[in-house]
Amino acid sequence: MLITVPEQLVATLPKYYGDRGRAWIADAPRVVAEHLDKWELTVDGPVMNGVVALVVPVQTADGPAALKLQIDDPDHPGEAAALRTWHGDGAVRLLREDPVAGTMLLERLDSGRDLLSLRDDVQAAQIIAELLVRLNAYKSPEGIRTLSEIAAGMLDFAPEAARKLADPAEAELIRGWAAAVGEVAGECGDQLLHWDLHFENVLAADRADWLAIDPKPLSGDPEFELLPALHNRWDEVLASGDPHRVVRRRFDAMVEVMGLDRERAVLWTLGRTLQNSLWTIEDGADRLESAQMLVAEAIRHRPL
């Protein structure tokens, strides 16, 4: 059976990967058909996609599962290694993998219910924190990118990036965030991080209330995990009347649940605002995103 690649993925992959993305799209139906045959799977629903991944609901001899394909991304290696390490503890379970083809057979979760479905954003942030406690309890396996590598790269590029900004005040923010990273870069840690655990990367499941999906594995300090959960439902954050308070409530709730050192968590979260901003500048921007600046200001300044 040949599947049809969703239009969103057809548009997105060439944007990120150029001709390699177009070639992957053209070959994806063949790869899916090959694995349906090899692993004795039957398509069991409409094909889905993430930003760069293709997911096909399937039935196996043992029940429902999901076949996931994604393009090889050297910036985010090791998803299967992370899932093997967690073995279902707080995360979707890996059932089979083909590392050559870049395919994984995963436990089927409820793709229609993620943490965006919760009305209480602080509760959602706390659930993410509870999952991170479990995920970060594991030492990182060999071959996973390290936070020390990421931090060194940020510190190396930050001076040049600051010079590319049109507003001197924003350039000073980049230098300040880099200084924050410099304070903690000597102790980057070696725990297994998810690196991208936001509201939409947590799905409901049969064997647990919520499980994490789609890790971008990193070896490092759990304090580096918080920012993705602070960015979700951003329209609601801005419409609240006090966006700094909304961000700070999420941040403080996660710090409490995870038992983190708040000041260290502030420094590493400023590192995440730096990382996101450096990516934006690399893409040609000469202004910082307002969300990055708001988050940084919110977590640094606590009301008296």
Number of DSSP-assigned strands: 11
- So what's the overall shape? globular
Runs in which pLDDT lies below 50 for 5 or more consecutive residues are none
Roughly how much helix do the residues carry, as a percent range? 40-55%
CATH architecture of the largest domain: Alpha-Beta Complex
User: What do we call the CATH topology of the largest domain?
Assistant: Aminoglycoside 3'-phosphotransferase, Chain: A, domain 2
Relative strand content: 15-25%
Question: Regarding CATH, which class of the largest domain?
Answer: Alpha Beta
Largest pleated sheet: 6 strands, antiparallel
Mean pLDDT, nearest integer? Answer: 95
Total number of helical segments?
10
Short structural summary:
This protein is α+β, with helices and mostly antiparallel strands.
Describe the protein:
With about 300 residues, the protein is α+β, with helices and mostly antiparallel strands. The chain has two domains: about 5-110, Phosphorylase Kinase, domain 1; about 115-300, Aminoglycoside 3'-phosphotransferase, Chain: A, domain 2, CATH 3.90.1200.10. The chain is built from ten helices and eleven strands. The protein has helices spanning about 5-40, 80-85, 120-135, 145-165, 170-185, 225-230, 235-240, 245-260, 260-280, 290-300; strands at about 40-45, 50, 55-60, 65-70, 95-100, 105, 110-115, 190-195, 200-205, 210, 220. Strands 1, 2, 3, 4, 5 and 6 form a six-stranded antiparallel sheet that branches. Strands 7-9-10 form a three-stranded antiparallel sheet, covered by helices on one side. A hairpin with a 4-residue loop joins strand 5 and strand 6 (about 105). The chain is globular and about 55 Å long. About 40% of the residues are buried.
